[in-house]
Amino acid sequence: MKKLICAKDVEHLIEEGKKEIIVEAGAIITPSAKDMAASNRMEFVTKDTKVIEEKEKSISADMIYQVLKTLSEQGMLKGIFDTISTPYEVEKDESGLKLIRGESVKYDYFDTGDSGVKAYFQELVSKEDSKMSAGFLMIEESSFDWELTYEEIDYVIEGTLCITINGKKYTAHKGDVLFVPAGSKVVWESPDKAKIFYATYPANWADLIA
């Protein structure tokens, strides 16, 4: 005899917090049960389908595990996960040396507190690596106020970088170097697109920003 699924059955499952209604193949589902399930975004799944889905998930997970295990044992996964999680290509030595491929660097948005500012950066040497930090900064046709609670050296790779300090504006071009002492209140600006390599001391400069 085929099982009858009525609205009351669906109501019980809703109270239990279920999202699927597992039914036997050929079960009779009343219109009111279908309406109640639809209004609560529940799905009817046959037992046979559910068993197949669970088997497929189990097989897939097991197969993936075995493949990864084999690759790991053969040393074929070495460095892959570091590359995935790092926004640039890097070679590391056990001494602590890092070789970063500059052309591979992907930039994050640099939050200046003004959403209209087009500034982007990527830290390449962090407080986990050194007592100093270093990275790339890009400012594109924007300006913003900034207070440094750390020392900073900037090398202009391309474009024009302007800095205003104590009411006086200084302009740096490609190949120029800037040193900005701790405690400085400045305005950073670029009338075009400036790309800068920066180094700061101490390395935890982001933690020191009020």
From TrEMBL:
Signal peptide: none annotated. SUPFAM superfamilies: RmlC-like cupins. InterPro entries: EutQ, RmlC-like_jellyroll, RmlC_Cupin_sf. Pfam families: EutQ. This is DUF861 domain-containing protein.
